[in-house]
Amino acid sequence: MRITQGMMSAHVLQSLQGNMRRLDRLNEQLSSGKEIRLPSDDPARIARSYDLRRSLGETGRYDANLRDAKSWLNATDAALNEATTVLQRARELTVRGADGSLPQEARDAIAGEIKQLKEALLQVTETEHEGRRIFGGYKVDRQVGPPDLFTPGGGPPPTYTYAGDSGTMDYPIGPSATLQINVVGGPVFKPALDALEQVEFDLVNNPAQVGGADLAALDTALDTIIAARSVTGARTNRVEMADMRMKEFDINLKELLSKNEDVEIEEKVMELSMQEYAYRVALQVGARVLQPNLADYLR
Asked: Per-residue confidence at 297, pLDDT binned at 50, 70, 90?
């Protein structure tokens, strides 16, 4: 086969273009910091990146749920702590009111303070977090649901009716893992409100009845609220542990994604230097191969 000057020229130009493409790819990788950008670069690695990014998206959603759940549980714990303080004070006043030597004026004053504690507890039951009532079950919106979760009726003394429902708010906090974050207010606060109404009524109308039964009702109500607070604390601990796991999982996914996509700067700089050297050598060789001939002078 006869090798012509034209064939040699075409081969040199083809080699130079190949070198330039490799240089362009290395420059693009260094400027973007990414080893792969298009599916045609490496289909298998691109598919791996899609899977990792999808997992990162799911992790982000779980992380948002965990933050929301933790803030909701913290608000619940603060409200239950206030309710506990209210009932402890009510118990102290009931013990004082059971003293048979107290004049009625003193009992009336204690009854007035019990009434204020009852109002404070009613405010606790209406506690909101980000515009949502935390003890109403699914009836979290005051504009749509009942204006008050607890209303007195009957009596005397009146007993309270819970206007919320027993709906539970379950948050996904991980793959195949959910957590109830709300406390249904009816079973938790109704015994306490009824007990406070009874104590207030007895202090004013039945002084001789103040004591054993009233204290027992308050103790039962206090135990109920403390139990709800214990459950809330356990849920908070679970959220914190899940949050730690999710953060570790997020870090691992980002490391895997970086290894799959990002360039090794030192390695790419070395490759770029070698490719630039190869390109300069190719130019020198091409200059020797593409020597001018007689036809070039005749043009």
From this structure: very low
